[in-house]
Write a structure and sequence with these properties.
Elements: H1 5-15, E1 27-31, E2 34-37, E3 42-45, H2 48-51, H3 60-72, H4 83-96, E4 100-104, H5 107-122, E5 126-130, H6 139-143, H7 148-151, E6 160-163, H8 168-174, E7 179-184, H9 200-211, E8 214-218, E9 242-245, E10 256-260, H10 262-265, H11 281-296, H12 299-315, E11 322-328, E12 331-336, H13 340-349, E13 352-353, E14 355-357, E15 361-364, H14 372-384
Parallel strand pairs: 3-13, 5-6, 5-7, 7-8, 8-9
Antiparallel strand pairs: 1-2, 2-3, 4-10, 9-10, 11-12, 12-15, 14-15
The structure holds pyridoxal-5'-phosphate (PLP).
Pyridoxal-5'-phosphate is lined by residues 106-108, 111, 134-136, 185, 189-190, 218, 220-221, 246-247.
Length: 385
């Protein structure tokens, strides 16, 4: 394998569905918070595979766990018991405060499972979701994703109603006898890094308790230390009935999980849900190593500290171009009054990877292992631009 950049782009554009708008670089390798393209150019990575590589790219402990597991067992299905699944489930239950885990392979798949479970528990069909929510691209997940452009060509989807984010009373008013549950992100990610008030999730939890409505918390992006806690729900001290997580779960290896409290989880009986690859030995080994690294390197605390540091530095930037800075831990958004894509292109040329979401928001979700010096470089290049 030694195609040059033009050959890679040529074949990709010819043979792959043209569903992605890609940056004009081809990545060859990565370590920690540094990514290298096929021409040998290095970039400080503030995207981390879209909030996935929380322990840094190719963390040696994760690489080693995958290598060792690959030599022993790659796949057998869920027809059998697996030691690494049992150990990982125990860890996740302890870290999340929920009681049971269903393993899957992506965020959308976790959300699909969550919606199915809520329908089974409630016997109802309709979901309440929030404006600007993103929950994934499969049909169930899409039905609670807000963006018109994503949804429109695929309607009719499952019934759902959208209420303003960060407005708990709007949820109360939207609950009807058809409501199966409410799904919400603790911080909206794709929607533009929208941080709700500290009371919001507490109020949502109270409304769900008063009305007997299931609360699904989508922690696909906010999980695994991203916001300075293991899960962002800890900032408000609530426990959802159902929770989803994925992105950073496997240290870069594809993996997702549906979690639920006991009285909810028991409603999924034998045969109600399944996944051939869910909780594969490779994914579980990677996820166990990932959690171990996060604990040993204190990455959850580090995320909180570095997030405060980064937001402090960004706050000193030119107010003519920056309208707002918001975030928690190393999940930071900077709202711009100038073209966001232009900035992404210019920083990339200067060796920094950033992502623009929701049109005008520069999103910073770097590996939690990134150094202060690397963040300083990012901010000073942004200042120059
Ligand atoms: C990314 C994301 C998803 C979808 O995850 P995929 O792995 O891309 O299917 C769902 N919910 C949230 C909050 C996300 O950020």
């Amino acid at each position: 394998m030694s195609l040059n950049y033009n050959e890679i782009v040529g074949k990709s554009d010819k043979y792959i569905f043209q569903t992605y708008t890609r940056q004009p670089i081809a990545i060859k390798k990565a370590r920690g918070a540094v990514v290298t393209d096929v021409n040998g150019k290095e970039y400080i990575d503030c995207v981390a595979g879209i909030a996935v590589n929380n322990v840094g790219h190719c963390h040696p402990a994760v690489v080693d766990a995958i290598k060792r597991q690959a030599e022993e067992l790659i796949h057998v299905s869920n027809l059998y018991y697996l030691e690494c699944q049992a150990l990982l489930a125990e860890q996740l239950v302890n870290l999340s405060g929920t009681n049971r885990v269903f393993f899957c392979n992506s965020g959308a798949e976790a959300v699909e499972g969550a919606l199915k479970l809520a329908r089974k528990v409630s016997g109802k069909k309709e979901f309440i979701a929030t404006e600007h929510a993103f929950h994934g691209r499969t049909r169930g997940a899409l039905s609670v994703t807000h963006k018109e452009k994503y949804r429109k060509p695929f309607e009719p989807l499952s019934p759902s109603v959208f209420v303003p984010y960060n407005d708990a009373e709007a949820i109360r008013n939207a609950i009807t006898r058809d409501t199966a549950g409410i799904i919400v992100e603790p911080i909206q990610g794709e929607g533009g890094v929208i941080v709700p008030s500290d009371e919001y999730l507490k109020e949502v939890r109270e409304i769900c308790d008063e009305t007997g409505t299931l609360l699904i918390l989508d922690e696909v992006q906010t999980g695994f230390g991203r916001t300075g806690k293991w899960f962002a729900k800890e900032h408000s001290g609530i426990l959802p009935d159902i929770m989803t997580t994925a992105k950073a779960m496997g240290g870069g290896f594809p993996m997702g999980a549906l979690l639920a409290v006991e009285d909810t989880a028991v409603n999924f009986g034998r045969g109600d849900h399944a996944s051939t690859f869910g909780g594969s030995p490779l994914a579980c080994a990677a996820a166990l190593a990932n959690i171990d690294v996060m604990k040993k390197e204190r990455l959850v605390e580090r995320s909180g500290e570095l997030g405060t540091y980064l937001m402090g530095k960004l706050a000193g930037m030119n107010k003519d171009y920056v309208t707002e800075i918001r975030g928690r831990g190393l999940m930071v958004g900077m709202e711009l009054s100038i073209n966001c894509e232009d900035i992404v292109n210019k920083t990339r040329e200067r060796g920094i990877l950033l992502n623009c979401t929701s049109g005008s928001v520069l999103r910073f979700v770097p590996p939690l292992t990134i150094t202060k010096e690397q963040l300083d470089t990012v901010v000073s290049v942004l200042n120059e631009i």
